[in-house]
Amino acid sequence: MVEIIVAKNAGFCFGVKRAVKLAEDSSKLTLEGKRVYTLGPIIHNPQEVERLKSKGVIPLEGQELHEGDAVIIRSHGIPPDKERQLREKGLEVIDATCPYVKAVHEAVVDLAKEGYFIVIVGEKKHPEVIGTLGYLKESGGKGIVVESLEDLKEAYRYERVGVVSQTTQSEKFFKEVVGELALWVKELKVINTICNATSVRQEDVYNLAPQVDVMIIIGGKNSGNTRRLYNISKSLNPNSYHIETPDELDPSWFEGVKRVGITAGASTPDWIINSVRDKIKKICSELSLSSSSR
Amino acid sequence: MVEIIVAKNAGFCFGVKRAVKLAEDSSKLTLEGKRVYTLGPIIHNPQEVERLKSKGVIPLEGQELHEGDAVIIRSHGIPPDKERQLREKGLEVIDATCPYVKAVHEAVVDLAKEGYFIVIVGEKKHPEVIGTLGYLKESGGKGIVVESLEDLKEAYRYERVGVVSQTTQSEKFFKEVVGELALWVKELKVINTICNATSVRQEDVYNLAPQVDVMIIIGGKNSGNTRRLYNISKSLNPNSYHIETPDELDPSWFEGVKRVGITAGASTPDWIINSVRDKIKKICSELSLSSSSR
Question: Could you tell me if B155 lies within 8 Å of chain A, comparing CB atoms?
Fold first, then answer.
């Protein structure tokens, strides 16, 4: 018997899973004759967006909104004034903002109220950061987004600085920013808002890849986080393969194999992971039958 | 004319200068028949300690204290229970604790009251750190002294961590500690209590040494911070000399010289710096007379 081990942390992170679930639940509103939109694609996975579209959950691309329509805020969140505008239009707002992102909003507002100048470690144009900046602005606080140590200089003029992070920020850069700031300002308050979804997925691969005969990594070929998982796996186990769908599985990979490991990038839905697992099971049982019949 | 430039930041730091001044003022108490002691040598400079001794300010080395004696707390500070014991004995306590060290005590007490687990970045056996730990203990707070990243692990168990530093801590290590902690704990509050006396002395040498023909560095041959000033100077200007007293000045160093730079370690009193400057002036004017008489 072949043993198939799916990494403990594989595929959707908590916030994406929750957002997709909310979108799916909202599709029922179409039965009441409502139109259901998502503000931008709910997830960067075309198959999943198509699946939800078939259920009536449509990405907003310039369509005119009418009172009573439902609008889903995706996991990145949006600025509070944007959310108010939606509500004032009489739309039904379904807030799928990731709770970890909400925690960043709260941290920024609290720090601003305590009088800190805010440093948001993150990408200036990322929708999550744009949302967080909206909360900072609304609280009446002052702050900047820091992409490089060069950006940080503006913060050195302040005595009391509060730091938060975009949830998907790299730990390495966050650490550098906090260390520099600690030398320049008198008082520094840091709320670590990095979500560990990426790092735990990578850690799982470090653990799993050396223990198995073959390692299958599922996710878009254009998905950065999936490619990083594949590279880690390949460095530890030469029999590592990066696929998007079960159709790409090659039976020859599994000949004489006892243990198969599976993981998936953060934008890969469970149903794709499951179909891959089922296909591997099938391939392996066919291989075993043909070898025992020899 | 030879130009002699004394570095802006040379010799005693603010806290040491203040402690020596308080010791000097206290010597007047001997006129009232009081005995005046310092808790340990007030400064690591034997000439200065001798000078104060001659005025009646005696380092405490096991002498029995009597009610009415005066006791000087040196710039490092002491734990609050020790100070209370002195006062309860009926001694006159003269507190020469450096105000920057008092700021560390206050920061630790405030952070402990706010419920933070305290990390003191510093040397476990340094008298300043022992004093600070006393204030932490008295406030009912919990914390550790961190000399290495290994020591830091104990702090990872806590969600909210407050950080202060021994005033003479290296900026590099402080930055490392703060960066690591920011990744491990949920909320980090850092009060940067590093005193910049050492770094500004070094910066001055970086600026001054390349501008002068000869650079004179004054301070004990066994003084670490003076040796570091000398090494920086030597790397920028080969005509750099480390001396303890004016007697070591060699007239040949000043032949044909137009500009002389002077600096001194943090334990070098002004009167030694001044006597070196006067001696250089004298040497240079003698050299100029002998060259014009040729």
Answer: no
Closest by CA to B15, choosing from B78, B101, B73, B83, is: B101
| 3-state SS assignment for residue A94 | strand
User: How does residue B294 score in pLDDT terms, banded at 50, 70 and 90?
Assistant: low
Contacts of A234 (CB under 8 A, 6+ apart): A240
Q: Report whether A76 contacts A101 (CB < 8 A).
A: yes
Q: What predicted TM-score, i.e. pTM, was given to this entire model? A: 0.80
Buried/exposed code over A266-286 (b: 16+ C-beta within 10 A; e: otherwise)? bbbbeebbeebbebbeebbee
Question: Token pair of A230, please?
Answer: 């594949």
Question: Per mean pLDDT, which range of A120-124, A225-229, B4-8, B13-17 is the poorest?
Answer: A225-229
**Contact between A147 and A122 (Cβ < 8 Å):** yes
Any bridge partners for residue B72, and if so which? Answer: B38, B94
Work out whether the CA dihedral A243, A245, A246, A250 comes out positive or negative: negative
Question: What is each CA distance from A128 to A79, A148, A162, A176, in whole angstroms?
Answer: 9, 18, 18, 21
pLDDT at A132: 98
Q: Name the packing angle between helices A224-236 and A197-208 (round to 10°).
A: 20
- DSSP assignment of A170-183, as one string? -HHHHHHHHHHHHH
Least confident of A149-158, B46-55, B99-108: B46-55
Q: How far apart are the CA of A103 and the nearest CA of chain B, in angstroms?
A: 12
Which pLDDT belongs to residue B293? 66
Q: Which one is predicted more confidently, B54 or B222?
A: B54
Query: B185: nearest CA in chain A?
Result: A192
Band of pLDDT at residue B227, cut at 50, 70 and 90? confident
Residue with tokens 């961590």: B161
Q: Pull the structure tokens for residue A99.
A: 């709770």
Q: Identify the three-state secondary structure at position B266.
A: coil
Check: CB of residue A107 under 8 Å from CB of residue A61.
Answer: no
Cβ-based contacts of B185 with chain A (< 8 Å) = 192
Residue B11 near residue B271 (C-beta atoms within 8 A): no
- CA-based angle B179:B185:B188, to the nearest 5? 65
Write down the pLDDT at residue B38: 95
Helix ranges restricted to H, B237-268? none
Contacts of A163 in chain B (CB under 8 A): 182
Cα A290 from chain centroid (whole Å): 42
CB-closest option in B174, B185, B187 to A182: B174
What per-residue confidence (pLDDT) applies to A46? 78
Query: Hunting for tokens 């903002």 — which residue is that?
Result: A97
Q: Is the pLDDT of residue B36 over 90?
A: yes
Amino acid identity of A190? V
Helices (H), chain A: 14-26, 46-54, 80-88, 99-113, 127-138, 171-184, 197-208, 224-236, 270-292
> Which residue, among A171, A175, A196, A198, would best test binding to B if mutated, counting the most B CBs under 10 Å from its CB?
A175
- Residue A114 annotated as catalytic: no
